[in-house]
Amino acid sequence: MKSKLRLFALMFLGVLLSVSCSKKEEGGSGGDGGNGGDGGEIPTATYGWKLTSWNGGTAIDGYVYLQFADDGTFTLYQQIGESTKAGYERLTGTYVIENDPDSNRIISGRYSDDTPWKDTYIIETWTDAEIRWRAVSDAAVSIYTWSEIPDYVTASSVSTTSRSAVPEQRFL
Questions:
Q1: CB–CB of 47/148 below 8 Å?
Q2: Higher model confidence: residue 76 or residue 37?
Q3: Its pTM surpasses 0.85
Q4: How far are the Cα atoms of 33, 69, 97, 99, 170 from residue 54, in angstroms, in the given order?
């Protein structure tokens, strides 16, 4: 009787552990965001990072979502400034995370049209729940939180080729 009870308890514990682990795989980046360090997977296509704070507050006219892929590419969905009336703009490109002896790790990137990001960023933290990085040029801090990207953001995005995209209007 005791062995059956132990077996049942072990099976129940196994079910609980598998449920909690499956949530982690679906919604977390594991470790410190994949390419940024010691491991973990990169967010899936339906998850990414939402800008929640910029330069000490949340005062940004619009919304920004960001996805990183393990092949060194990114997708940025932005609805900022004048573009808030036109839906989300989808921008793609490549990124690189490098170790810098003075400031830990830095991230930089280029858009698909070969325009560089407007800045290089020092990665202050990159956890399962939050990315915090600081612009090298003006020390503006951006905080992104792990978030599901709504379907209306990805489905109704406007490509950069369908309207004139001025590089100064790009968030990164």
A1: yes
A2: 76
A3: no
A4: 20, 23, 21, 24, 14
